[in-house]
Amino acid sequence: QQNVVVITKTFANRALLQFDLTTISQSIVSRDIINPTYKLIMKCAREENLPIRYSLIAYPLYEGWDMGDGYYFDGGSSKGASWSFRDRYSGSLWAMTGSSYLITPSASQVFNYQAGDVSMNVTSIANAWINNTIPNCGLVVMTSEETNPTSSGMSLYFFSQDSNTIYSPYIDVGWNDSSIVSGSVTTSSISISQINEG
Question: What is the DSSP letter of 72?
Fold first, then answer.
């Protein structure tokens, strides 16, 4: 038809996070921690228009960024990272709009009929940081709905470190420090006595 303009809008919400793994790295070098697994834990504060099935994907960032000092309810901040800027105040742009990230390594979590509390295995990303394979510039977490042309416009909001709650995002580090003792096992007899109450 003549004089008809079709406008397609894509709404994309992304979360940026960064964690200092220096202490963990030192414990790995000293062999206090062996073969750890890393889980990204994020608690959902609010969700809107969630589809039945969706995924959250985490990619490692390859450019440094600054955190703003604003809040969602006061319109954000003139400082810090945004869709276009690594730091809006200094005018430092992302090399790639929306945040500069590597495709691999990556991590994901699938959700079915549930809200978005995250417990995502990010071991491959954390190992790459600790081994200095990639710089630790943090993570970007995005939803699979970002590339879905029929997306319902879902939104997930997570507690941040400035939320004044116990639900700040963190990386849970787990490892097995048990040891197996080989050799012979001896047993002995024991006597059991019963002491009545009173």
Answer: G
Task: Give 112's strand partners.
Answer: 53
Cα–Cα distance for residue pair 184/194, rounded to 1 Å:
32
Cα(162)–Cα(66) distance, integer angstroms:
15
What is this structure's pTM? 0.79
Report angle CA 14, 154, 140 to the nearest 5 degrees.
15
CA pseudo-torsion sign 47, 50, 54, 57: negative
Residues in the chain, how many? 198
Backbone φ and ψ of 145, nearest 5°: -70, -15
Do strands 53-60 and 107-112 pair parallel, antiparallel, or not at all (unpaired)?
A: antiparallel
Q: Is 164 exposed, middle or buried (0-12, 13-18, 19+ CB in 10 A)?
A: exposed
pLDDT tens digits for 58-81?
Answer: 999 999 998 877 666 666 667 888
